[in-house]
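[job 4471] stage=fold_predict status=RUNNING
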Amino acid sequence: MALRSFYKIIHTSSRTVWGTTEERIFRESLWMTEKGHQIIVIAPSGSPLFMRAKKMGIQVYPLSFNRLAHIGEYSRLKRIFAAEKPFAVNCHGQNDAKLVLKAARKTGVDCRIISQHAGSRIKKAWFTKRKYNQYCHYTFTDSPKTIPLLQKFFKIKDIRIFSIPGGIIEPATLPHKADAQKELSFRFGLPPDTRFVGFTGQMPLSWMGGMILQTFESIKTQLPHHMVIASDQPQAFPSDLKEDLARATQGRIHFLDFEEKVWPLYRALDCMVFLPKKDEVFRAAGIPQRLLEMMYAQCPVIAPIHSGVTDIINHSQNDLLFDHDSQEKRIGQLVLETICQKSETLKRAAAAGEYIRRHHTIDAMGRDILRIYRLHQIRLEKERHF
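[job 4471] inference complete, writing structure tokens
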């Protein structure tokens, strides 16, 4: 029997917010659709993922994944799977996993997947072990560092768990650095030759503010640079924080609220200090999408030694790392090193961009997923033949 060339894939999510998980599902869905595969999204009606998928012409089914409505929603999922006959079902959260995987198994879906995304809590329980080992065929993680923890808790075999980090969508072109820097200067009403150091991340703003101020104090007399704090979250910066930092630095700190079009910013900066949340023992690790974008844009990055960060950054080879415990003193030193040692910085930035182009684009991610689908299909055909 000939193997199929195109797949019908259903993604499910119970979340009603727009975050890195939803962005990943959406990007993957668009890429798969472009390659000729059929994508269906099941998500709460009115959620950002549901609305964006529908707007882009992706088939959608509304489902709330409400605990009080599980019996009815389980029956509806079975009807959807029986009618659509997908090759694969991929659930993207613990709230929907048990319901979705059980319905997919009951209706004979060929390939059942649970994606363990960054930040999700890993709970050791007998029914969770059953979910990973009986209800689904594969587990996808955002980082290879999550795999040992899942295997320790749930005894998942190597051939059934894969690290598939999210991939970035490459821009058609990248702005020239000089043009981007002038545009950012104009945006803040500054002279066109103003240079910038950036800060971004998911640490609490109260903590970031103090750390950024300390970094500024350590470099302000040695560098003429202004600082740009770019939000990694849709929430706006508190006005009192902005006023306090601007006053303390005599107007050399500026704020950018969350933006999806980030390429001009990354190209405008002489370096970016990236501050993810600290690792937590029982939470899944992940490679931050924003970090991948910075490195692709050849924006020199300074980041802490962190599970998702060290998946892609090798200190002094493609960017610079510091220890969380010495960050106040070390960040300022690394900013000075990055800006003053221009030749070495350019080499690291070029190496970072090349690494991301090879391993962490949406094309690379999509090819890895399709390879797993195809190998699973081959295995199924062999089982059915014998």
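[job 4471] summary: The chain has two domains: 8-167+361-385, 177-359.
[job 4471] exit 0
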